[in-house]
Design a protein that fits this description.
The model has no long low-confidence stretch (mean pLDDT 97). The chain is globular. The relative contact order is 0.15. The termini are close together. Helix content is 23%, strand content 28%. It has a single domain, classed as 4-Layer Sandwich (Metallo-beta-lactamase, Chain A). Keywords: Hydrolase. This is MBL fold hydrolase. GO terms for molecular function: 3'-tRNA processing endoribonuclease activity.
Amino acid sequence: MSEILFLGTAGARYVVAKQLRASAGTVIHINNSYLLLDPGPGTLVHLAKRKIPIEKIETIVVSHQHLDHSADLNIMVDAITEGGFKKRGTLFLTESALKEGILLSYLHSYLKKIELLKPYTFYESLPFKFKTTCLLKHTAENYGLLFYFPEGKIVGFITDTAFFDGLAEEFAEANILVIYTVRYKPLENVLHLSISDVKKILEKIRPEEVILTHFGMTMLKVNPFKVAQKLSKDLGLKIRACYDGMEIKI
């Protein structure tokens, strides 16, 4: 059975800086292989605490270069490759992230492969299969992601973005939808989703399950669990607020 482990659920500078929620990444486990999504600060530590074998993380996906999504990338590449003595692993990242140098130059040759994320593109790093959505509306090049699981389920990740017309439809095929919900209420010129945006999305598509994560301070103050519970009741959908260490079976 495949599973997803949310090592951390922090989604804004203050929450990350104070570690009010862990800012570690998300692990996808299929068969005996692991994919690491968005290795933010503390990812290596949380993987060690959970005794996840670093050498079995053959795939890393970085949605964009902001530190809460990429700060532990270099140490992860070094750890996975045992300091470069074992050439292994595939890294997926945007062209913008690569140009900004989020991966130190000496680590490039440690990896088997580096692939650039582009819009509407299908990728395979077996046993993992996923595709990107359109370019999202954020302050860095960033795409939504749809992962295809051997159980026949599709899990979508709406990563950091402002709401825009057509966003929901990009994830219409997702059975499980993970939404990065930084804010409780929208704030002008802040390119992150809020609860009112989540409602707009879920009025257009109705996944089997919705998971809210990547919380900023305004979400923590109002209690994400209560917010998710009310949303679930109002919309008639299974909606949960994520917590650090939460696992879901696919």
